[in-house]
Amino acid sequence: MKILIAGESWTVHSIHQKGFDSFTTTEYAEGIDALRRALEAHGHTVVYQPAHVAARSFPMTAEELGEYDCVMLSDIGANTLLLHPETFSKSKALPNRLEAIREYVVAGGGLVMIGGYMTFQGIEGKARYQGSPVEDVLPVKMRAGDDRVEAPQGLAPRAEMDTHAMLAGVTGAWPHLLGLNAVEAAPEAETVASAGGYPLLVAGRFGKGRGVAFTSDCAPHWAPPEFVAWEHYGRLWNQIAGWAAGAA
């Protein structure tokens, strides 16, 4: 399969105050390594677009998205896909890429949204996917405003549908997660796993395609090192992508 992943990158600009004096440093980071390695280890081709690259280069049309068997959005807000630099800076009219994602799924594509501070609704509601065309092809209904559930004590995931293809061979206790985005499963959606009483892994069908919501993270901080190093981590993500793409 060929998989497009957008997001999972950030820049931190820090102010260091040392008595009277101060200086700044800037650091760029990506959180994609574990997920990309897991998918590539199962033979998939992964095309990765950090958020700043996706702003300009994410496909404009359903036809362009059709090059991929599965599209994953992870910690990338709706504004990054809506406000192409040519639109924001030069007022140039361009296709609505959220509508393109919806058309791609209905035509047979697979979509996976992975939780974080800038997916679903996110911190302070700034991810802004509620009521968008993307929500139309996800198996969950989003809450208005900040939807984060921070759980420093840990949330214990549990399988709700052991026989679902996404959980084939995923046995035993899951490692704890440290948070997720609170959503409600849509009517007729399948809640495959939950955590702390919230939907964690939800599956749905839309037209000829499929949508999956994984409401926690694929990497720290909500997915701690124990989760990323879990023996079933690679199997789980391979099967999530495979199911979304229609492989099962």
TrEMBL record:
Domain Putative glutamine amidotransferase: 2-243
Matches recorded under InterPro entries: Class_I_gatase-like, GATase1-like
Pfam families attached to this UniProt entry: GATase1_like
Alphabetical list of PANTHER family matching this protein: BLL2462 PROTEIN
Identification of the protein by name: Uncharacterized membrane protein
